[in-house]
TrEMBL record:
This is YwbE family protein. InterPro entries: DUF2196 (IPR019240). It comes from Halalkalibacter krulwichiae. It comes from the Bacteria. PANTHER family: YWBE PROTEIN. Pfam families: DUF2196.
């Protein structure tokens, strides 16, 4: 599994586990397909922020399936 801290690993259309803002304390993850990448910097220690196709926004915890 690839962590979601580097922007270069994340592309639109890949399957990821994200942590939503309200789940940061519990660490509960939500799985979905990336629609938009919201973090502009190439690296973020807590994970790159993305918007899923269902509209949820959170930080990528891990990449499940890469379309590369």
């Amino acid at each position: 599994m690839i962590s979601g801290q580097e922007r270069k690993h994340i592309k639109s259309g890949i399957e990821v586990d994200i942590i939503l803002k309200q789940d940061q304390r519990t660490g509960k993850t939500t799985r979905g397909i990336v629609k938009d990448i919201l973090t502009k910097s190439p690296y973020h220690p807590h994970g790159i922020k993305v918007r899923l196709q269902n509209g949820q926004v959170g930080r990528v915890k891990q990449i499940i399936e890469s379309s590369c």
